[in-house]
């Protein structure tokens, strides 16, 4: 029992001449599919195209196949009503008004809604109507607010533009031209290509338009295009819209301006007229095509089409009348051709259409656009089927009166068609974009070949969207070398792009990378900085590790010198200490407070040895020890000198009878002075290590190409506090020694201490500006020199004179001589 329902849906095919909307009209107990085709182009007097007639046959075949399939719309017969727009806008509008009116008269703004004739509608008559298109690619139709009921079995021009631009980027073509047809289709495609090219950094050198083959402005168009193309340097040209190949051929023939151009053709490209000219012109070019599909059952159906199998098909009779001059059963059609001087004769009605026309115009083996027609019919049928199944508890009439029901089901369908393809619409109402890329070839034997060389799929991750086999591509003049199309040649490695006075970012000069930067590719627009531990090589195309700089024992002679000198001085201090120990009971050793002398010699010897903490590769522990150990050792040495000088002054003041200074004689005062002065330095150093200790630092910025491994003092205040405290002790020692310089010579070290402190102060006063004016290992050299000089000054000034008396003039080292000097 069939449902009493006539529901129509519109499949809008052919040129995008009108948005065919449909409300329902009905009487027979079946669903009707309204198909709107463009089969005749250029008006009623022009030739019908057999390749487009094949789309109509695929539409009819799909409807018949669905009706014979019990799994789709059971108990419902799907019918169809087909209108031919003849390639004219006015005719297309007339057909749409007929559908909307639901009667034989075309009534604008009227739609049938009569009780008793229909039991249900796909949508109310004043609402949106549904369309599935296989030819509308305008990206403006992506607006789902304005066109919520439009679905397409092919992607829009925006997706195709992105695919073309990614192909350009793959081959490094950043300098291109555009030739577009002078119509809305060419304008839309070129606009999308320009927008997408700008996003990917591709520049358009020129954009020209071509008009129809005939017209009063044809010569001006040719001359204008020749002038632009002749000056152009771009070798890659994108083609948009329906280009007149004849016009382009004339342009090339008269000016030879296209002989070095390689064309990139879009999927919806077709050349008007002169197919042989088009093959010659586009030889070696690349074209985007919709993936071909083999459909054995449709192939078999198309191979059986003849006038006898379709006796009521007036379009088929007109195809035979126009191409083969065969009489038709329509007397008006015969009269029309007779009027135009075409003599018609009687032909066999059993001749198969596939035998009468070549595969170029009636291909029954591989299907591209025809397959999208077939898929559109199945998409609508499956949406109706799903809606019927889901709401089977309601009557079908009530189901179809819901305003948005069919649109919702069409949006959610997911099925596999008889050809094995999964069909589902994305959020834009389109099927996922897939393009095949073919290479046009004109073979030496005169035959033509379209070689598959690549694939583009928009639904996969970006890195895998474009697949190209460059090895099988034959370019212009059968060359295997990829053509170059750039405004400026790539900057070599080690260089960067420099903008020139041009409106195009693709036109640039080259300049060497700045210091510390590299460029390791030929297409780099800018240089990139090397990591902190690396530096550019001479060519500035790669980063190499920086050389490390520090006072190394293995490679730096200065480190060896600075290690030998303190070692010799420390040995000298050790020898003097041994001499003083051996002669500790002699008057000159006893008279100068031998315990303080021993302590002073040990501290001087340690000060020489602490120099080794400054040599070699710095690490955190040596950084913490070098300044603190140096400060503490020097504070002990200087405080020992201060104690010795104070004891000389106290001793001479205590010689007078009844003097109160006698109670200060002994070891308490010098030991206390040494302990207190040294303990203050220890507190300073401990505080320094606790708050902000020194640490190893990799200085990568002071010297280009070098990493200076140095010690960061942590706290600059603490560092200069140590120096300042040592300077304070030295100044006090110098002042006390200077006041005691006139005491008797045999008991008095004051003038030697004065001179040693003068050397000490001069060294460290000079050290501060020198230390602040140098960097890297030179700071270590300056500090080591200051330590050696000040320590050597104390050693030489204080102990060399005594060693001279002990070893060279022992006759002076007697108590008698000392008493004589005193008296």
UniProtKB/TrEMBL annotation:
It is found in: Cell membrane. This is G-protein coupled receptors family 3 profile domain-containing protein. Residues 558-822 form the G-protein coupled receptors family 3 profile domain. Gene3D superfamilies: 3.40.50.2300, GPCR, family 3, nine cysteines domain (2.10.50.30). Pfam families: 7tm_3, ANF_receptor, NCD3G. The chain crosses the membrane at residues 558-583, 595-616, 628-652, 664-689, 717-740, 752-772, 784-807. Keywords: Cell membrane, G-protein coupled receptor, Glycoprotein, Membrane, Receptor, Signal, Transducer, Transmembrane, Transmembrane helix. GO terms for molecular function: G protein-coupled receptor activity. PROSITE patterns: G_PROTEIN_RECEP_F3_3, G_PROTEIN_RECEP_F3_4. GO terms for cellular component: plasma membrane. It is a multi-pass membrane protein. CDD domains: 7tmC_V2R_pheromone. It comes from Leptobrachium leishanense. Its main location: membrane.
